[in-house]
Amino acid sequence: MRWLRFAVFLIAVTVIQAGLIERLGVTSLSIKPNLHLIILVFFAIYSTPSEAIITSFVIGFMADIVAGPMGSHTIAYGIIGTAISYLHALVAMRFWLYQAIAIFVCGLLAGFLGYMLSRLKGLSSENAAAVIFWTSVYSAVIGPLLFRPFIWWMRIKSHRMSKYR
Questions:
Q1: Residue 79 CB: number of other CB atoms within 10 A?
Q2: Does residue 159 have a pLDDT over 80?
Q3: Is 165 exposed, middle or buried (0-12, 13-18, 19+ CB in 10 A)?
Q4: 3-state SS of the chain?
Q5: Class of residue 156 by CB neighbours under 10 A (exposed 0-12, middle 13-18, buried 19+)
Q6: What is Dmax (Cα atoms) for the chain?
Q7: Could you tell me the pTM of the whole model?
Q8: CA torsion angle for 142, 148, 154, 160 (degrees, to 10)?
Q9: What is the C-alpha separation between 50 and 46, in angstroms, rounded?
Q10: Which of 21, 11, 14 lies closest to 135, judged by CA?
């Protein structure tokens, strides 16, 4: 893992999520793509399990800085990222449809877990289920399209399993 590239990448994604993504969202329900969720699934798929655990917690911390009460995204993303990393050892998620499904399911699980953790702090939202669902759908649609630029930026060799070594 190239940790300096990861740090620059995560800061750039956090700035984009906090500023630019607001303009891409559907304003009636405040639905917008969740770039932190997309890169959570990206690093859970394309890195080793120990790197995925570290990156999941760091991505969750940065998601807490952008939106939500502190701690809810960190815990939710840490658990979900770790689970996806270990699940990737059983099911190869290199095809774009599997990546979209993984982003959608992770969005639902992390959103629900983050919502439940924020309810413990006394914070709640009226339309949380709709926002979690549509944010997961929006992220799952654009997520696999962003994986190629992410692979290029992180210098990940996507064809590691070739028969000619």
A1: 17
A2: no
A3: exposed
A4: CCHHHHHHHHHHHHHHHHHCHHHHCECCCCECCCHHHHHHHHHHHHCCHHHHHHHHHHHHHHHHHHCCCCCHHHHHHHHHHHHHHHHHCCCCCCCHHHHHHHHHHHHHHHHHHHHHHHHHCCCCCCCHHHHHHHHHHHHHHHHHHHHHHHHHHHCCCCCCCCCCC
A5: middle
A6: 57
A7: 0.88
A8: 130
A9: 12
A10: 21
- The pair of structure tokens assigned to 39 is 């890169």
| C-alpha–C-alpha distance, residues 127 and 28, integer Å | 11
- Break the chain into its structural domains and give their ranges: 31-154
Residue with tokens 């932190």: 36
Task: Give the pLDDT confidence of 75-109 residue by residue, as tens digits.
Answer: 999 999 999 988 887 887 878 899 999 999 999 99
Tokens of 19: 């500023």
Mean pLDDT of 29-43: 89
Q: Which amino acid is at 40?
A: L
User: The tokens 């891409």 sit on which residue?
Assistant: 24
